[in-house]
Amino acid sequence: MLNASQYIKEHIRTVENWPQQGVMFRDITPLLQDPKTFRVLIDLFVHRYMDAKLDMVAGLDARGFIIGSVLAYELNLGFVPIRKKGKLPFTTLSEQYELEYGSATVELHADACKPGDRVVLIDDLIATGGTMMAGKKLLERLGAEVVEGAVIVDLPELGGSKLLKSSGLQLYTVCDFDGH
């Protein structure tokens, strides 16, 4: 019998050489398309955070919105979208971070949360850790406490989870993929 982590991992498709040669893209859309698998995934997160005394769930653009908004709904919490630069209409704070092939910027509304709010930060996966680190910094600039970072997939060979843990961020990952 599979445990929940193995069950979720079996529903993640690997797409070779996308978006560029040599990359093994971990595609979560098959697990989202199957209602049973999607429910198992959401239930893993709900059970983890149901007693965590959280105030908000923050999701990173774009796949973190899928899991984060459903989790916020299930926990009866507000949801904070952390978006790519230029997508939010109100006053924003921004944080630039480095990618393997350049840099990017994420933003959140200046009134997205209050000092002291306990927040879980959600995304689909951790690669180099840059996006989640930028989201953590933005939330902390507003005075929030980022209780934990949570993802479906960790790609440990890319070093992101190690970087995030060394920054003091607790991490929850459903499954990981090493190499191929």
UniProtKB/TrEMBL annotation:
It catalyses: AMP + diphosphate = 5-phospho-alpha-D-ribose 1-diphosphate + adenine. One of its GO terms (cellular component) is cytoplasm. InterPro entries: Ade_phspho_trans, PRTase-like, PRTase_dom, UPRTase/APRTase. Pathway: Purine metabolism; AMP biosynthesis via salvage pathway; AMP from adenine: step 1/1. CDD domains: PRTases_typeI. It is an enzyme of class 2 (transferase). The keyword Cytoplasm applies. Homodimer. Catalyzes a salvage reaction resulting in the formation of AMP, that is energically less costly than de novo synthesis. This is Adenine phosphoribosyltransferase. It comes from Undibacterium terreum. The lineage of its organism: Bacteria, Pseudomonadati, Pseudomonadota, Betaproteobacteria, Burkholderiales. The gene is apt.
